[in-house]
Amino acid sequence: MDDTDPFSAQLPQPTGARPLLGLTVLVIEDSRYACEAMRLLCLRSGARIRRADCLRSARRHLQVYRPSVVVIDLGLPDGSGIDLISELASGTPRIEALLAVSGDAHLEADALAAGADGFLAKPILSIATFQSKLLSLLPDDRQPPGPRLLDTSGVTPDRMAFQDDIAHIAEVLERWPDPRSLDYATQFLTGVARLAGDKKLEDAAVALAAKRALGEAARSETATLAGMLQERMSEKVAI
Protein backbone atom coordinates (compact mmCIF):
# COMPACT_ATOMS: atom_id res chain seq x y z
CA MET A 1 0.00 0.00 0.00
CA ASP A 2 1.35 3.43 -0.96
CA ASP A 3 1.58 5.58 2.16
CA THR A 4 1.60 8.87 0.25
CA ASP A 5 -1.05 10.70 -1.73
CA PRO A 6 -0.16 10.08 -5.42
CA PHE A 7 -1.51 13.49 -6.42
CA SER A 8 0.88 15.60 -4.34
CA ALA A 9 4.66 15.49 -4.39
CA GLN A 10 4.89 18.26 -1.82
CA LEU A 11 2.12 18.88 0.70
CA PRO A 12 1.00 22.50 1.19
CA GLN A 13 1.10 23.83 4.73
CA PRO A 14 -2.07 24.66 6.70
CA THR A 15 -3.03 28.27 7.22
CA GLY A 16 -5.34 30.08 9.62
CA ALA A 17 -7.97 30.43 6.89
CA ARG A 18 -7.56 26.86 5.58
CA PRO A 19 -6.41 24.85 8.60
CA LEU A 20 -6.75 21.43 6.94
CA LEU A 21 -4.63 22.30 3.89
CA GLY A 22 -2.36 19.41 2.96
CA LEU A 23 -4.68 16.71 4.30
CA THR A 24 -6.40 14.02 2.28
CA VAL A 25 -9.65 12.88 3.88
CA LEU A 26 -11.28 9.58 2.92
CA VAL A 27 -14.99 9.83 3.74
CA ILE A 28 -16.82 6.50 3.99
CA GLU A 29 -20.48 7.43 3.82
CA ASP A 30 -23.43 5.84 2.01
CA SER A 31 -25.64 8.95 2.02
CA ARG A 32 -24.96 11.23 -0.95
CA TYR A 33 -26.50 14.14 0.96
CA ALA A 34 -24.26 13.64 4.00
CA CYS A 35 -21.26 13.11 1.73
CA GLU A 36 -22.02 16.36 -0.08
CA ALA A 37 -22.01 18.15 3.29
CA MET A 38 -18.65 16.57 4.08
CA ARG A 39 -17.29 17.61 0.68
CA LEU A 40 -18.23 21.23 1.36
CA LEU A 41 -16.69 21.09 4.84
CA CYS A 42 -13.43 19.78 3.40
CA LEU A 43 -13.48 22.33 0.57
CA ARG A 44 -13.97 25.23 2.97
CA SER A 45 -11.18 23.88 5.20
CA GLY A 46 -8.59 23.21 2.49
CA ALA A 47 -8.60 19.40 2.61
CA ARG A 48 -8.81 17.10 -0.39
CA ILE A 49 -11.54 14.50 -0.22
CA ARG A 50 -11.91 10.94 -1.49
CA ARG A 51 -15.21 9.12 -1.10
CA ALA A 52 -16.40 5.55 -0.63
CA ASP A 53 -20.02 4.48 -0.13
CA CYS A 54 -19.43 1.10 1.51
CA LEU A 55 -16.81 -1.00 3.27
CA ARG A 56 -15.85 -2.85 0.10
CA SER A 57 -15.19 0.38 -1.79
CA ALA A 58 -13.26 1.81 1.17
CA ARG A 59 -10.97 -1.21 1.32
CA ARG A 60 -10.24 -0.86 -2.41
CA HIS A 61 -9.24 2.78 -1.82
CA LEU A 62 -7.01 1.83 1.08
CA GLN A 63 -5.15 -0.78 -0.99
CA VAL A 64 -3.94 2.02 -3.26
CA TYR A 65 -3.11 4.91 -0.93
CA ARG A 66 -3.08 5.98 2.70
CA PRO A 67 -5.13 9.12 3.45
CA SER A 68 -4.26 11.47 6.31
CA VAL A 69 -7.72 11.16 7.87
CA VAL A 70 -10.50 8.59 7.54
CA VAL A 71 -14.05 9.64 8.42
CA ILE A 72 -16.16 6.52 8.90
CA ASP A 73 -19.95 6.35 9.10
CA LEU A 74 -20.83 3.53 11.47
CA GLY A 75 -23.95 2.34 9.60
CA LEU A 76 -23.00 1.14 6.11
CA PRO A 77 -24.93 -1.06 3.67
CA ASP A 78 -22.44 -3.93 3.80
CA GLY A 79 -21.56 -3.91 7.49
CA SER A 80 -20.52 -1.82 10.47
CA GLY A 81 -17.94 0.91 10.25
CA ILE A 82 -16.69 -0.24 13.64
CA ASP A 83 -15.14 -3.31 11.96
CA LEU A 84 -13.10 -1.08 9.63
CA ILE A 85 -12.06 1.14 12.54
CA SER A 86 -10.64 -1.93 14.30
CA GLU A 87 -8.70 -2.91 11.18
CA LEU A 88 -7.25 0.55 10.61
CA ALA A 89 -6.44 1.20 14.26
CA SER A 90 -4.13 -1.81 14.31
CA GLY A 91 -2.62 -1.16 10.88
CA THR A 92 1.01 -0.21 10.25
CA PRO A 93 1.69 2.55 9.45
CA ARG A 94 -1.38 3.86 11.20
CA ILE A 95 -3.73 6.45 9.69
CA GLU A 96 -3.09 9.79 11.42
CA ALA A 97 -6.71 10.26 12.51
CA LEU A 98 -9.75 7.97 12.54
CA LEU A 99 -13.00 9.87 13.05
CA ALA A 100 -16.25 7.94 13.58
CA VAL A 101 -19.55 9.61 12.71
CA SER A 102 -23.11 8.46 13.36
CA GLY A 103 -26.60 9.71 14.02
CA ASP A 104 -26.68 7.34 17.01
CA ALA A 105 -24.70 9.06 19.77
CA HIS A 106 -24.78 5.93 21.95
CA LEU A 107 -22.37 4.27 19.48
CA GLU A 108 -19.56 6.64 20.50
CA ALA A 109 -18.25 4.33 23.22
CA ASP A 110 -18.14 1.35 20.84
CA ALA A 111 -16.30 3.38 18.20
CA LEU A 112 -13.69 4.64 20.67
CA ALA A 113 -13.23 1.15 22.10
CA ALA A 114 -12.58 -0.15 18.57
CA GLY A 115 -9.78 2.39 18.13
CA ALA A 116 -11.38 5.56 16.75
CA ASP A 117 -9.54 8.74 17.76
CA GLY A 118 -12.73 10.76 17.97
CA PHE A 119 -16.47 10.80 17.33
CA LEU A 120 -18.91 13.33 15.90
CA ALA A 121 -22.69 12.99 16.09
CA LYS A 122 -24.64 13.72 12.92
CA PRO A 123 -25.75 16.04 11.48
CA ILE A 124 -22.40 17.69 10.78
CA LEU A 125 -22.83 21.07 9.10
CA SER A 126 -20.74 23.43 11.25
CA ILE A 127 -17.38 24.36 9.74
CA ALA A 128 -15.93 25.30 13.14
CA THR A 129 -17.03 22.01 14.71
CA PHE A 130 -15.59 19.96 11.85
CA GLN A 131 -12.27 21.80 11.78
CA SER A 132 -11.82 21.84 15.55
CA LYS A 133 -12.52 18.13 15.89
CA LEU A 134 -10.07 17.11 13.17
CA LEU A 135 -7.34 19.44 14.40
CA SER A 136 -7.72 18.05 17.92
CA LEU A 137 -6.85 14.59 16.55
CA LEU A 138 -3.79 15.62 14.54
CA PRO A 139 -0.15 16.02 15.64
CA ASP A 140 1.54 19.39 16.16
CA ASP A 141 3.13 19.46 12.71
CA ARG A 142 -0.35 19.38 11.15
CA GLN A 143 -1.57 22.46 13.06
CA PRO A 144 -1.88 25.88 11.38
CA PRO A 145 0.61 28.47 12.66
CA GLY A 146 -0.53 31.35 14.83
CA PRO A 147 -4.07 32.27 15.85
CA ARG A 148 -7.02 30.88 13.90
CA LEU A 149 -10.31 32.70 13.40
CA LEU A 150 -13.17 30.24 13.84
CA ASP A 151 -15.56 30.08 10.90
CA THR A 152 -18.96 30.00 12.60
CA SER A 153 -20.89 29.47 9.39
CA GLY A 154 -22.30 26.19 8.15
CA VAL A 155 -22.62 24.39 4.84
CA THR A 156 -25.76 23.73 2.82
CA PRO A 157 -25.64 20.51 0.76
CA ASP A 158 -27.19 20.35 -2.70
CA ARG A 159 -30.84 19.36 -2.36
CA MET A 160 -30.51 17.09 -5.39
CA ALA A 161 -28.32 14.82 -3.27
CA PHE A 162 -31.19 14.54 -0.76
CA GLN A 163 -33.52 13.53 -3.58
CA ASP A 164 -31.02 10.88 -4.66
CA ASP A 165 -30.96 9.45 -1.12
CA ILE A 166 -34.75 9.34 -0.99
CA ALA A 167 -34.92 7.53 -4.34
CA HIS A 168 -32.28 5.05 -3.17
CA ILE A 169 -34.18 4.07 -0.03
CA ALA A 170 -37.51 3.93 -1.88
CA GLU A 171 -35.90 1.38 -4.20
CA VAL A 172 -34.49 -0.59 -1.26
CA LEU A 173 -37.93 -0.83 0.34
CA GLU A 174 -39.58 -1.79 -2.95
CA ARG A 175 -37.09 -4.44 -4.07
CA TRP A 176 -35.84 -5.91 -0.80
CA PRO A 177 -38.56 -5.53 1.88
CA ASP A 178 -36.83 -7.97 4.25
CA PRO A 179 -36.08 -7.29 7.95
CA ARG A 180 -32.42 -6.37 7.32
CA SER A 181 -33.40 -3.90 4.59
CA LEU A 182 -36.01 -2.32 6.86
CA ASP A 183 -33.45 -1.83 9.62
CA TYR A 184 -30.95 -0.33 7.17
CA ALA A 185 -33.61 1.97 5.69
CA THR A 186 -34.70 3.34 9.06
CA GLN A 187 -31.12 3.98 10.19
CA PHE A 188 -30.26 5.63 6.87
CA LEU A 189 -33.39 7.78 6.72
CA THR A 190 -33.17 8.94 10.33
CA GLY A 191 -29.76 10.46 9.68
CA VAL A 192 -30.60 11.92 6.27
CA ALA A 193 -33.89 13.44 7.46
CA ARG A 194 -32.19 14.98 10.50
CA LEU A 195 -29.49 16.49 8.27
CA ALA A 196 -32.14 17.89 5.92
CA GLY A 197 -34.29 19.24 8.77
CA ASP A 198 -37.20 17.04 7.64
CA LYS A 199 -38.77 16.36 11.05
CA LYS A 200 -41.82 14.49 9.71
CA LEU A 201 -39.68 12.05 7.76
CA GLU A 202 -37.34 11.60 10.72
CA ASP A 203 -40.28 10.88 13.06
CA ALA A 204 -41.69 8.32 10.60
CA ALA A 205 -38.32 6.54 10.38
CA VAL A 206 -37.95 6.54 14.18
CA ALA A 207 -41.48 5.13 14.59
CA LEU A 208 -40.69 2.28 12.22
CA ALA A 209 -37.39 1.60 14.01
CA ALA A 210 -39.20 1.49 17.37
CA LYS A 211 -41.65 -1.12 16.11
CA ARG A 212 -38.80 -3.16 14.60
CA ALA A 213 -36.90 -3.04 17.91
CA LEU A 214 -39.93 -4.48 19.71
CA GLY A 215 -40.23 -7.27 17.17
CA GLU A 216 -43.74 -6.14 16.25
CA ALA A 217 -45.34 -6.04 12.80
CA ALA A 218 -44.79 -2.63 11.28
CA ARG A 219 -46.85 -2.72 8.09
CA SER A 220 -48.62 0.55 8.86
CA GLU A 221 -45.38 2.37 9.69
CA THR A 222 -43.67 0.94 6.60
CA ALA A 223 -46.55 2.01 4.36
CA THR A 224 -46.53 5.51 5.88
CA LEU A 225 -42.81 5.86 5.32
CA ALA A 226 -43.06 4.59 1.74
CA GLY A 227 -45.79 7.14 1.03
CA MET A 228 -43.67 9.97 2.42
CA LEU A 229 -40.77 8.91 0.22
CA GLN A 230 -42.98 9.03 -2.86
CA GLU A 231 -44.17 12.52 -1.89
CA ARG A 232 -40.61 13.79 -1.55
CA MET A 233 -39.51 12.22 -4.83
CA SER A 234 -42.30 14.12 -6.58
CA GLU A 235 -41.13 17.47 -5.20
CA LYS A 236 -39.51 19.81 -7.69
CA VAL A 237 -35.97 20.90 -6.91
CA ALA A 238 -34.91 24.33 -8.09
CA ILE A 239 -31.76 24.23 -10.24
What layout of secondary structure does this protein have?
Layout: E1 24-28, H1 32-45, E2 48-52, H2 55-64, E3 69-73, E4 75-76, E5 79-80, H3 81-89, E6 97-102, H4 108-114, E7 118-121, H5 127-137, H6 159-175, H7 179-196, H8 199-213, H9 219-233
Helix pairs in contact: 1-6, 6-7, 6-9, 7-8, 8-9
Overview of this structure, please?
- This protein is of the alpha/beta class and 239 residues long.
- It folds into two domains: 24-142, Rossmann fold (3-Layer(aba) Sandwich), CATH 3.40.50; 159-233, no CATH class.
- The protein has nine helices and seven strands.
- The protein has helices at residues 32-45, 55-64, 81-89, 108-114, 127-137, 159-175, 179-196, 199-213, 219-233, and strands at 24-28, 48-52, 69-73, 75-76, 79-80, 97-102, 118-121.
- The strands form two sheets. Strands 2-1-3-6-7 form a five-stranded parallel sheet, with helices on both faces. Strands 4-5 form a two-stranded antiparallel ribbon.
- Helix 1 (32-45) links the parallel strand 1 and strand 2 (48-52).
- The longest helix has 18 residues, at 179-196.
- The radius of gyration is 19 Å and the shape is globular.
- The N and C termini lie far apart (41 Å).
- The model is unreliable at 1-9 (pLDDT under 50).
- Pfam families: Response_reg.
- Residues 24-137 form the Response regulatory domain.
- One of its GO terms (biological process) is phosphorelay signal transduction system.
